[in-house]
Amino acid sequence: MSNSSIVIRSASLSEAPIILNLWKNSAKWLNSKGIYQWRPEFFDVDQVMEFLTNGSDVYIAELNSEVVGTYIITWTDPFIWKELDNLQSGYIHRFAVNRDYKGMGIGNILLKTAEQQIKSRGKTFVRLDCMADNSRLNVYYQDYGFNYIRTINGDGWSANLYEKQ
Questions:
Q1: Residue-number span of the structural domain to which 158 is assigned
Q2: What average pLDDT does the structure give for the chain?
Q3: What DSSP element (H or E) covers 66?
Q4: For the whole prediction, is pTM greater than 0.85?
């Protein structure tokens, strides 16, 4: 699939329910595969609105006017990255592709676009995290060129931190 067929643009406040729906559907799909990094019941529209209003960059991807994906870029992430958090990095969060469009390379297009957006802001590093027990997603990010930094442990969860220069 060519980049030209996908339109990636900033999300508007009125699109918060669409983004929430993408998150919940991705969570349901993950849960059906026995992966519980996201739980649909943990997401609500207020979380989307917070990202849309807190200085984060929230994006929606469309193909033929259908929403096919979303991601968020934050410019700091002390909660996850702790002392490694820095101003030279952009942090990709809530990366989700509509499962109706799986296998079309949309994830790669979204990652590449996010990477370009982060670099266009003068940042050196593209960072993201994913649940340590989601082996398929960890391999996906490594295959894309992200380097494993470390594993962090939260309350009942572990996440792997990745970075690409």
A1: 3-164
A2: 93
A3: strand 66-74
A4: yes
